[in-house]
Amino acid sequence: MPIGYLSLVLHAHLPYVRHPEYDDFLEEDWLYEAITETYIPILEVFDSLERDGVDWRVTMSVTPTLAAMLSDPLLQYRYVRHLENLIALAGKEVERTRWQPQFNHLALMYHARFTRAREVFVNQYGNNLLRGFRRFFESGQLELITCGATHGFLPLMEPINRHAARAQVEVGAREFERHFGRRPKGLWLPECGYVPGVDELLRDAGIRYFFVDTHAIMFAEPRPKYGVYAPILCPKSGVAALARDTESSKQVWSAIEGYPGDYNYREFYRDVGFDLDYDYLKPHLHKTGIRSHLGIKYYKITGRGDHKEPYEPTAALEKAAEHAGNFMFNREKQVEWLAGAMDGRPPLIVAPYDAELYGHWWFEGPDWINFLLRKMHCDQQTIKTITISEYLELHPKNQVTQPTLSSWGYKGYCEVWLEGSNDWIYRHLHEGADRMVELARANPDATALRRRALNQAARELLLAQSSDWAFIMKTGTMVEYARERTRVHVLNFNHLYDQLRSGQIDEPWLNEIERRHNLFPDVDYRVYA
């Protein structure tokens, strides 16, 4: 029997970006890059573990917006087109570097990776990676959980309009059930944002547990006896809250002090999309001609300065194995020390990360996961991986205490999502939420065209509420796109509100915005009533 457990939690999320009104759109690359660099490599790791008989457990959120994009035929088609472009570019790179052995073997590696990604995506999973995640979910090794419908930031929503927060939670649970066949047991709070009362909404949606940042539980009232190393139960709802272990997180999360900053690993920011001659690259760039990351990167981190040396995959792979062993060793020593202070109860270490860290930002991240899960299965018996549902079944009795308002991000109290660059959005979001409740209550049984307009109003409000737009405004990347997305969804909602109030619905216009913003096909506006 192990003396402690590790719950590795991956939060797989991207904002909903789909633009059928354009043949080619730069921001859709966010999805394509994540598929190639994160989601397919992680599925490949899971496949290899299953094939080799390794016993493993991972918890992973698949947010409703990500699931909507992964299952969308238009984006599936465009992803294959994106891959074919990269395969063609990599083929050119193999020829261009034929007399540069330090780069030629890397060009061959990328050509093989892109070709393999197409094979996995098209032939193994029929263009829909949700099938792969669902297979491991049904086997019990991967526990999938949901999130707020569009990653709406609940601490700035629930106290103002409880119906809006409830809709984020309930639509998230319904979409999960539509894609994966049953209701989720867990929910990743968007941005780990918690405020008392949110747990009651989770209970009403059938959710048994959720994740928060460390200080939400460390400052809970009364103070938790076991700190962050055991679940706590919220007093009014009985839903379990679990907090991030800062020690294990920092080892991986920090680009400077953590593993991803090792000088042997691949350098993210040196990409051929910016390094090579423009005319050579132009056939492979977007139609706007703007340079962008193309996913072919020839250099390792090397050091803190601008000087970069060629990437060496074998050395990087060896370092990933070394770091996986170091992580496992530290967790062994951690649970050995904790077990002595927990009255015989095995400590639970919760290690949550953005899934896109593995592969996209940290190229060797999926290899690190592979090494870690294999080492934990084969090399020791002190600590084992476990899902939260399994742990709660083993230890159903937990301390009842009230978590505090919190989020992750700068300072840990919502400041990333409410400050000078983005505070202007909330007057519109709160007014929209009030108007949506008004519409839902005034139309208890709408049919035909009116029902379509009400459901689309719900979609537009949900999309406007995405925490990603406020985050992008704060970080200063693609700010104009985030502002435009907020503006478009608010204007669409208000236009629908006016039409519904007047009784004169512009059906051709409604057809067009339904085509553009078509996520959540089963959404029911009455969730706001």
Protein architecture, described:
Strands 1, 2, 3, 4, 5, 6, 7, 8, 9 and 10 form a 10-stranded mixed beta sheet that branches. The radius of gyration is 24 Å and the shape is globular. Helix 1 (about 30-50) links the parallel strand 1 (about 5-10) and strand 2 (about 60). It is built from 19 helices and 10 strands. By secondary structure, the chain is α/β, with parallel strands linked by helices.
Quote the distance from N terminus to C terminus: 50 Å
Query: What is the helix tally?
Result: 19
Mean pLDDT: 96
Residue runs with pLDDT of under 50 for 5 or more positions: none
Measured as a percent range, the helix fraction is: 40-55%
Question: Biggest sheet, in brief?
Answer: 10 strands, mixed
| Dominant shape | globular
Q: Which strand-content bin applies to the residues?
A: 5-15%
Helices and strands: which structural class? alpha/beta
The helix-strand sequence is EHEHHHHEHEHEHEEHHHHEHEHEHHHHH
The total strand number stands at 10
Whole-number radius of gyration? 24 Å
Short description:
The protein contains 19 helices and ten strands. It has helices at 29-51, 64-70, 73-96, 101-124, 130-139, 162-180, 198-204, 214-218, 246-253, 272-275, 278-281, 313-339, 365-378, 388-394, 425-442, 448-464, 467-475, 479-502, 507-516, and strands at 4-12, 58-62, 142-147, 186-188, 209-212, 232-233, 240-243, 348-354, 383-385, 399-400.
